[in-house]
Amino acid sequence: MSRTTLLDREVGQAMSALSAAAKKGLGDPALAELVVIRASQLNHCAFCLDMHLAIARGHGMSEKQLDLPAAWEEAGEDVFDERERAALALTEAVTVLTDEFVPDAVHDLAAKHFDATQLAHLVGLIAAINNWNRVMVARRIPPGGYTP
To answer: Containing domain of residue 116, as a range?
Structure first.
């Protein structure tokens, strides 16, 4: 049996609206792309990685930052600042849910760097990209086809 490549237009539009609203509310396009890239790495979504790496380059992210999200903890603060590191930690905790919950320490660290509204949008963005990753991976959509 072959997999469908179709995505219901209304579903796709709703998912796109969620992503756009979360990014807009976060107010930092480069950070939003960093979060999306890390979640997509964790979810093994080649399509989303390909697309969001191109978008991140358009926002002026350094190649070093684009090369090292998977090793952000070891990369040091000269690559990712405290705010980016808090966002990456929250991204991993929400995406993986290893203990079935986001640890309080991870949430509290993010809350030190984001106000309540930004934090809500950050969590919304993480949820949105996890949805996109699952939709793309489930259908095995290959990278390519995205032009910035």
So the answer is: 29-138
**Residues 60-80, mean pLDDT to the nearest whole number:** 96
Structural domain contains residue 117: yes
71 domain residue, yes or no: yes
Q: Is residue 7 part of a domain?
A: no
Collect contacts of 133-138 with beta carbons under 8 A, ≥24 apart: 133/39, 133/40, 133/43, 133/45, 133/48, 134/43, 135/7, 135/15, 136/45, 136/47, 136/48, 137/43, 137/44, 137/45, 138/3
CA distances from 91 to 4, 5, 15, 30 (A): 29, 27, 18, 15
Tokens 């984001």 sit on residue = 114
- 83 burial via Cβ count (<10 Å: 0-12, 13-18, 19+): middle
The tens digit of pLDDT for each residue in 28-52 reads 999 999 999 999 999 999 999 999 9
Neighbours of 106 (CB within 10 A): 17
DSSP assignment of 48-78: HHHHHHHHHHHTT--HHHHH-GGGHHHH-TT
Radius of gyration of the chain (CA): 15
